[in-house]
Design goal:
Length: about 400
Amino acid sequence: MGGMADSAKKIFKKGDVLIREGDQGDSAYVIESGSVEILIQRDGALIQIGTRGPGSIIGEMAMIDDKPRTATIRATEDCLVMEISRADFARRVDSADPILKMVMRVIMTRYRDMISRSQFMPLPSHALTSAESAENSDEFHKLAVNALKINYELKAALSKNELMLYYQPIISLKDMKIAGFEALMRWKHPEKGLISPGVFIPVAEESGLIVELSRWALGVSCDAAKSLHQAADRKLLGNHPLFISVNFSVKDFSSGNFFDQVKSTLTSKGTEPAHIHLEITESLLMEAPAPAKEALERCRHFGTSVSIDDFGTGYSSLSYLHYFPIDTLKIDQSFIRSMSKDLSSKVLVKSIIGLAHNMNIKVIAEGIETEQEASILTELDCEECQGFWFARPMPLDDALTFVKNWVPPKIA
Ligand code: C2E
Ligand code: CA
Ligand code: CA
């Protein structure tokens, strides 16, 4: 488990001390609600040098080093805070993009210098107060606090069963039979309603919580594959086992035991490997080519297929297709969208399909919204399609009905 997955919420009552001057600190807090006062010892008395309210970060020096706390922070109202440990913070900095990391280090060093200078100044330290409030009002700060909040709620959502998978059918073009489904995550928030993965997946990827989400999604998909396979009208299925395609992220591969996780989940669920496809993006492969290759080879040897998602949006070099063990390419919907409008996009899709076929790789086109798109793809010899024209992603119950009652469309 990594990142913010181990962040925790804490409640402090009015008068409680959150941070005590002189103590060793290893965490900072983000105030969600309530307010605190900042106090320092001078000549045996506690003097208030400032107050902080919701959205502020306190005790952040502990993120930089383990020097004793330079002030006492006490709740002036009941407070709800999120705790960030130094270990967690360090993990985040470590996994940040190199430029971001460099800028972080520079800012942290300057901040530390400024604080140590300010300790020799008479109080209250205006330099410190204004620098702190500038930082607190910063857009970045708000974004970071918001991401932290989503992440905390998301972790809770997993244990409260608020996460669910929707299933979107993948249809074989030559006979219009059901080949499988892609599992797409949804967050059923009690107040905000259905939240799209475009909002919460990036936050979970950033914090490392994605590893838990992926593991959960794989387990649920194993059960779904079983029920869908059993419920299906055999006449509506192709010759291959009905599959569920599960999305994975780069963090899933960084733990080093990706294959073992997949294998143990499938084994414990009693799922045949052929019922599960692993869906990953080009950028994932490029971030850590060697470990990804090894993990994928083991998965494939075990019997689970590997699909490249959003093909065409990431890397222009196609040579990696030879390097990685790949069964399927999923052509991104942006190509499909422009294909019916201009000839050059159609030629591009045609050549992607040709290239894939030369390498014994199957093609799935994503985001089919019109009959015309389906018709062009049939003409181009694309094997499978997925899109609103066939069906939108749906909850398992609807998918169970779908595999019994699907009426294959006829393409003119
Ligand atoms: P994706 O993997 O490319 O998934 C396909 C997205 O296209 C889905 O959006 C799907 O609802 C949408 N889509 C399908 N057919 C059509 C169509 O005909 N027209 C249009 N306009 N859109 C179509 P969704 O479900 O909102 O998911 C968004 C992205 O979130 C996914 O893109 C994927 O990157 C990520 N995601 C979703 N579930 C998971 C998950 O369980 N794990 C991970 N790591 N990522 C996930
Ligand atoms: Ca996908
Ligand atoms: Ca996609």
